[in-house]
């Protein structure tokens, strides 16, 4: 009799081991058969030529060949809800890409939200993928690009979009605060390149660890920026770097708070995130956006090399000027060395000639000018003596006349002529009506004084 499934289950439960015969009896299929079965199930009219809206990620066109990509869907918070591999075959991709670019003004690239016509395909070797056969250009920009434009417009309206770009970078930015994941290959490449640069420029990088992927990316980088800002005098600039990866992994950098922090940051911020093809919101606000961590190191080295070249150029110019000055001074010194032995003798002769000439001129001047001046001086002295004597006589006569006049007008002379002076209480009396009976008066004569009382 045949064995039922319940009998088999019961025996497997009761027995601690399985026999080889039991395994041989288990029915199975190969992976190829499974994939073919899946293909037969999904490749139905319901999964063919369906219009789908999704966001493009990791678009990788091959030269003269197919274009591979991922189609993704996110919720309003940016969380990924669905993802599928997709391809545009090489015989169709040039036509569709030209059609899309002509209608939208931009290339068919990562980050765009598109409407595409897809057919599900299950390949036994390459697995499940969606084959794109048409594109609706009217449905163009992806949500994150629209959000990016909105954030950029908001930063511009707040007047901070260009703040970090307007900062002054030091001539040689040597003290570098690096924000990166500690174990990231991009960070290792950056440090290795900047510390072992061919010009032996001295850089001092320090890592400020941060999460560089996922939903915590923005807040993690902001915390690192806050830590650097607390010691900003110790750093010349900040470098934010992250190596390559899927474009969808860079969504953590599309954050307003992070962008605003960089705009307002007191030090220049250099950003090197992703691959050559990648662009993030931070590229629009940072002091210097570069494509990769290696490019960030190369740019800093180039800045240092430029400063070194300017220093070498100025050193050469100073050396040239000093050499020319020394040569000129040596030539002048040789000239003076040749004329110096004869210089005192020539100078003595010239001064002797000048002295003799001055003596002759002085002798001539004394004969023609000094003698008449002496005679004029003698006449002036004689005239002065006569004038002085006459002036003394005239002054004596004037004084004598004034003495006589003064003597004639003196009170004593008036008294001598018979007049008298009457005073009451020491005051000269000029009006008799001013005196009252009983008043004592004093009368002064030429000789003596009389005291009287009015009655």
Characteristic terms for this protein:
alpha/beta, 455 residues, Rossmann fold, five-stranded mixed beta barrel, five-stranded parallel sheet
In short:
45% of the residues lie in helices and 20% in strands. It has helices at residues 5-14, 20-25, 31-42, 93-104, 143-157, 185-195, 217-229, 256-263, 293-339, 343-409, 411-416; strands spanning 50-61, 67-74, 80-88, 113-123, 127-136, 175-180, 204-209, 237-242, 269-273, 288-290, 421-424, 427-428, 440-444, 449-453.
What does this structure look like?
With 455 residues, the chain is an alpha/beta fold. Among the domains are: 31-141, Beta Barrel (OB fold (Dihydrolipoamide Acetyltransferase, E2P)); 146-307, Response regulator (Rossmann fold), CATH 3.40.50; 414-453, no CATH class. Helices cover 45% and strands 20% of the residues. The chain is built from eleven helices and 14 strands. It has helices at residues 5-14, 20-25, 31-42, 93-104, 143-157, 185-195, 217-229, 256-263, 293-339, 343-409, 411-416, and strands spanning 50-61, 67-74, 80-88, 113-123, 127-136, 175-180, 204-209, 237-242, 269-273, 288-290, 421-424, 427-428, 440-444, 449-453. The strands form three sheets. A five-stranded mixed barrel has the order 1-2-3-5-4. Strands 7-6-8-9-10 form a five-stranded parallel beta sheet. β1 (50-61) and β2 (67-74) form a beta hairpin. The radius of gyration is 59 Å and the shape is elongated.
């Amino acid at each position: 009799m045949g064995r039922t499934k319940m009998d088999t289950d019961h025996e497997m439960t009761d027995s601690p081991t399985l026999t080889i015969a039991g395994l041989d009896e288990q029915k199975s299929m190969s992976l190829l058969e499974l994939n073919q079965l899946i293909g037969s199930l999904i490749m139905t009219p319901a999964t063919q030529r369906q219009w789908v809206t999704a966001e493009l990620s990791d678009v990788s066109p091959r030269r003269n060949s197919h274009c591979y990509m991922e189609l993704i869907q996110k919720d309003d918070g940016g969380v990924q809800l669905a993802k599928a591999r997709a391809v545009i075959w090489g015989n169709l991709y040039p036509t569709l890409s030209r059609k899309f670019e002509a209608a939208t003004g931009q290339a068919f690239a990562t980050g765009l939200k598109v409407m595409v016509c897809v057919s599900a395909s299950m390949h036994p070797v390459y697995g499940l993928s969606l084959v794109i056969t048409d594109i609706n250009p009217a449905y163009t920009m992806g949500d994150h690009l629209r959000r990016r434009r909105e954030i950029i417009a908001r930063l511009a309206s707040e007047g901070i979009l260009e703040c970090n770009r307007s900062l002054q970078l030091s001539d040689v930015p040597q003290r570098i605060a690096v924000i990166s994941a500690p174990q990231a290959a991009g960070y290792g490449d950056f440090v290795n390149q900047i510390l072992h640069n061919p010009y032996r420029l001295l850089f001092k990088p320090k890592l400020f660890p941060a999460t560089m992927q996922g939903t915590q990316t923005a807040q993690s980088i902001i915390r690192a920026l806050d830590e650097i800002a607390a010691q900003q005098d110790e750093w010349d600039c900040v470098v934010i770097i992250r190596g390559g990866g899927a474009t969808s992994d860079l969504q953590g950098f599309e954050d307003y708070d992070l962008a605003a922090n960089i705009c307002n940051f007191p030090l220049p911020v250099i950003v090197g995130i992703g691959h050559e093809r990648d662009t993030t919101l931070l590229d629009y606000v940072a002091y210097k956006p570069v494509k990769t961590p290696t490019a960030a190191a190369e740019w800093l080295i180039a800045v240092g090399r430029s400063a070194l070249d300017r220093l070498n150029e100025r050193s050469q110019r100073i050396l040239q000027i000093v050499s020319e000055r020394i040569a000129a001074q040596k030539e002048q010194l040789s000239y003076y060395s040749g004329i110096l032995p004869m210089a005192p003798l020539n100078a003595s002769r010239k001064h002797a000639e000048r002295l003799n000439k001055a003596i002759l001129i002085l002798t001539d001047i004394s004969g023609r000018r000094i003698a008449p001046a002496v005679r004029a001086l003698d006449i002036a002295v004689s005239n002065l003596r006569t004038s002085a004597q006459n002036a003394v006589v005239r002054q004596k006569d004037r004084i004598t006349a004034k003495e006589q006049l003064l003597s004639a007008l003196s009170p004593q002379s008036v008294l001598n002529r018979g007049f008298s002076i009457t005073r009451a209480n020491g005051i000269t009396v000029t009006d008799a009506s001013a005196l009252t009976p009983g008043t004592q008066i004093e009368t002064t004569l030429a000789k003596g004084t009389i005291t009287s009382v009015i009655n």
